[in-house]
Amino acid sequence: MKIIVDGDACPVKSEIIATARIFSTPVCMVASFDHRLPQVEGVETVQVDRSSQSADMFIANKVKAGDLVITQDFGLACLAIAKHAYTLSFRGETYTDDNIDYLLERRAEFAKRRRQGARTKGPRPLTDDDRKRFQQNLTKLLQEKQEKREV
């Protein structure tokens, strides 16, 4: 398993790196050149061009079955699920076959409303509780994968 992170505006990079180190799980952070990633020991960093979907397309092409993709992008999550990868949001929510269709439909509905002139709220600010929930869910997922490898 490899953790592949949609690094454009990812607010939980340090939590990902710290948790991955505990489980000796490789991490690949992907971001456009507009979102400069610092070099961190043991973390592969990939900078892609500035076009709007470059990081997502790179990740979609790189992910393999059993990898973990961490993203807020429902479209990228859907592509990862189709490749039998695990997916997690920056708030620790798991994207699955059971909920991704609803999330994509809701996103499309909000986009339609915005095109018609309506105002929609953006995501609420990330809280310390969100960070803790993310790290707990990431830890739980990595523990489960490690236990399966040991059996």
Q: What kind of sheet is the major sheet?
A: 5 strands, parallel
Mean pLDDT: 90
> Helix coverage percent of residues?
40-55%
Distance separating the two termini: 16 Å
Protein name: UPF0178 protein J40TS1_09520
Organism: Paenibacillus montaniterrae
InterPro entries: UPF0178 (IPR003791)
Family: Belongs to the UPF0178 family.
Task: Lay out the secondary structure.
Layout: E1 3-6, H1 13-22, E2 27-32, E3 43-48, H2 54-62, E4 68-70, H3 74-82, E5 86-88, H4 100-115, H5 128-150
Parallel strand pairs: 1-2, 1-4, 2-3, 4-5
Helix pairs in contact: 1-5, 3-4
What does this protein look like?
This protein is an alpha/beta fold and 151 residues long. It contains five helices and five strands. The protein has one domain (3-150): Rossmann fold (3-Layer(aba) Sandwich). The protein has helices at residues 13-22, 54-62, 74-82, 100-115, 128-150, and strands spanning 3-6, 27-32, 43-48, 68-70, 86-88. A five-stranded parallel β-sheet has the order 3-2-1-4-5, with helices on both faces. The chain starts with a strand and ends with a helix.
Summarize the structure.
The chain is an alpha/beta fold and 151 residues long. The chain has five helices and five strands. It has a single domain, classed as Rossmann fold.
